[in-house]
Amino acid sequence: MIPEYYEFQSSAKILSGAFALENIPVELDNLGCLRPLILSDRMLQKLGTLQVVLDALLSGGTEIGGIYTDIPADSSLEVVNRIGSYYKENNCDGIVAVGGGSVIDTAKGARIILSQHAGDIMEILGCESMKRGEQIPFIAIPTTSGTGSESTLVAVIKNEARKLKMEFISYYLQPDVAVLDVRMTETLPPRMTASTGMDALCHAIEAYSCLQKNPLSDAYAISAVKMIGTYLEKAAANGKNKEARLAMANASMMAGAAFSNSMVGIVHAVGHALGGVCHIPHGDAMTVLLPYGMEYNLEKCRKEYGELLLYLAGDDIYSRTPAKERAEQLIREIRNIESRLHNVCGLPLSLKELGVKEEDFQQAANTAVNDGAMIVNPRQAGVGDILELLKQAY
Amino acid sequence: MNNMSRKKKWSNRIKKRTERIVLYVLYGGLFELYKRDSRIQREVDSWKHGMTYCLQCQKDGPSLYIRKTGRGLERLDPRVQSDYDTCFQFKSIDSAFLVFTGQMGIAGAYAAHGFTMKGDIGTAMSFSRSVDLAEAYLFPQFIIRRILKEIPEKEMSALGLYIRIAGGILSGRYRMTRENKITYTARTAGGAS
User: Is the Cβ–Cβ distance between A173 and A112 less than 8 Å?
Assistant: First the structure.
């Protein structure tokens, strides 16, 4: 079914595969960037992952304007402003972000500060309210396969002074180039591979079943689900499997492009709230909540879930399952994948395992109803519904 | 070729007029329901003092400014009020018309990129829930079934609400405040008393 109206944009150029990193200098040149600022974190510097990128840039003749690695997990306006000043002091003219969701989100925040010239950042807070601003070349190199941040149009920055998590949604936040190279994810531990991969699966499933879905986001979501079904367990079992690593990097990027253009739903709304209240890793929250969120939406999304069974479980299981049971079968398949990953690498299956306390449920539920993802969830959810969902997932 | 066709001009004029009326009635609905519907009461009570919302039909189209005060809700004059905390700005007169004539709900308009939203998304969610609830009273069942995800139970009759809104209009309860009021954001930023 085609929506009466929809919009879609996925503007990042994708460099995927062997020696993708070595092609970045040409892309920087094409973007008119002569002195990029490299953003990363201390862990990636310590692991040597950042050095692999620097080697690729330097061997291609790129002059590095500066390297900034003091980036915490949850970036604040203060960090973003510091990076903005560092960028100007070092006469940089573009950004290369190497890292997971936090680093790439921080880079997006720094790009907002540098490109918008807003007197007060609160003026541009919101959804689709940002102008293009000054062009700041921006290349994202993800080091996890889950957040899809390299293709999304969302940035979240903490404003500690105003006690506010500022959320920016704009097509102008998408990077110019996203680089998918297996050297960036091969050191990712199995548990993290599984958890971030489940986050990507959640992006794809929610993108395919929420109110803003459209034919193009569907295409990306389906391809992502298919790749995750084929490769997630292989990547978790053997991190050196290059085919699986590259497929998961692509799946994560595609799921990101899908949900950027169709949004996510209740699983993410509750997951964001739990992350804020109980400080649990986002991928773990998605793993635990996904089947319960799907059960909550089941009657509204029966058709979509049934269709996705083919792509996640393959044609054999799909054809053996009666049409009216395919949606339930999809949820069972997801639980089976999670259970196998639990056995392989200890992926958590309940909120209790994650250390969530029951007394935090009320605050999490109150926060979740005000999450932006809730607006496009196919089924209305109030505080009571979310409390019930949390109890089930406990 | 620089002139808009008469057809489009008339269509815009009619749509803007309709939107102005619906915004007025919507405000009346929210004002009355704040006193009579526990869910809207909860939502509005959760807004910070001075919180100012704006619903705008296109950049220069009809708009509604609502402010939370110590006594409840207050309607501000769009010709005077220059600031807001959260604003839903419809991208066109036409997308606003779809929402204000019950052809599309707020969630549907969001999904169809019908408006841009400026401000904190969390506070916008609370406002959109309040508008959904008000619409559930103001529109007939067959429309509500189409535009809302689920039909909320009414805590008063729709007819009763319409009578109260009519009374409110006649008594001048929804008259606009003709001064520029300080928003919540401006207050917390230390910009005003």
Answer: yes
Q: Which of A221, A143, A125, A136 is nearest to A175 (CA)?
A: A136
So what's the ipTM on this one?
0.91
The whole-angstrom distance between residue A217's C-alpha and the CA centroid of its chain comes to: 15
What's chain A's average pLDDT?
Answer: 95
Is A127 strand, coil or helix?
A: strand
Instruction: Say whether both A173 and A242 belong to one domain.
Output: no
CATH of the domain at A377: 1.20.1090.10
Residue A106 backbone class (left: φ over 0; alpha: ψ -120 to 50; beta: rest): alpha
DSSP H helix total and E strand total for chain A? 14, 9
pLDDT score for B191: 42
> Rounded to whole angstroms, how far apart are CA atoms A384 and A298?
18
Using the Cβ of B190 and the Cβ atoms of chain A, whether some distance falls under 8 Å is answered with no
DSSP A298: H
Tokens coding B56: 């705008």
- Number of domains comprising chain A: 2
**What residues in A contact B131, CB-CB < 8 Å?**
none
Do A92 and A209 fall within a single domain?
no
The answer to whether the CB atoms of B128 and A375 lie below 8 A apart is: yes
Q: What is the pLDDT of residue A85?
A: 93
